[in-house]
Amino acid sequence: MELVNPALIASAIPVLGRQAYFTVSGSFTPTKSGQYCIMGYGGGGGGGAGGGAAATESYCRKGGEGGSAAKMDLGLFDLTAGTTYTVTIGAGGAGAVGGAEGSIFDGADGGLTSFGTILQPPGGAGGAGHKRYIAPTGISGIGGAGHGSGGGVGGGYITVPGPGLDGIEGTGLSGGGGGGGGGAMGDSTNAYNGGSGAAGAPGCIILIW
């Protein structure tokens, strides 16, 4: 069994016909021995929380970073008929819950996906939270690193007093990263929490033979 170049896999797909998709954990027992194309994604990373603001702050806080999307692993592997292979689908990382001024909460990493011991793509990294103090013009959080269906969007900022907006959940079958939470802004009377980061999308396993 071996990992191969994605271009080689793509050239083999027209020759191979049957497919199996796993979006939840389970098992796979081939009915015939032979070579199988196996593709997998870990879970996407959760988004970081945006910065909370004190009541005295008329400047906005920076948004949290988006979670990174999971990296894809794929290859051609020899499977044996009648052998049961355990399939574990990595969960998306939890987004960080937004907190008060001075808090920094990072998103959780996505979970490992595995097909037996043959293929084990890791999950994406969680996004970093922020408490950085920004001018009224604001600045968004950094987007997560993109693989598969893409990294999560960095949390935005607001230009009027209020809490930060929550991030958008990761999407797709390929471990998309969760969006970062938005930064908050105080109004001289009230303090506000930063927005919460969103969860990353779960991973998947795809077999083609």
Summarize the helices and strands and which ones pair or pack.
Layout: E1 2-3, H1 6-12, E2 19-22, E3 26-28, E4 34-41, E5 72-79, E6 85-88, E7 114-115, E8 204-208
Antiparallel strand pairs: 1-5, 2-8, 3-6, 4-5, 4-8, 6-7
Structure description:
It is built from 1 helix and 8 strands, in the order βαβββββββ. By secondary structure, it is mainly beta. The strands form 2 sheets. It has a 5-stranded antiparallel sheet with strand order 1-5-4-8-2, with no helix packed on it. The longest helix has 7 residues. The N terminus is likely disordered.
Number of helices: 1
Order of helices and strands: EHEEEEEEE
Q: State mean pLDDT (0 to 100 scale).
A: 84
Strand order of the largest sheet: 1-5-4-8-2
Q: How would a crystallographer describe the biggest sheet?
A: 5 strands, antiparallel
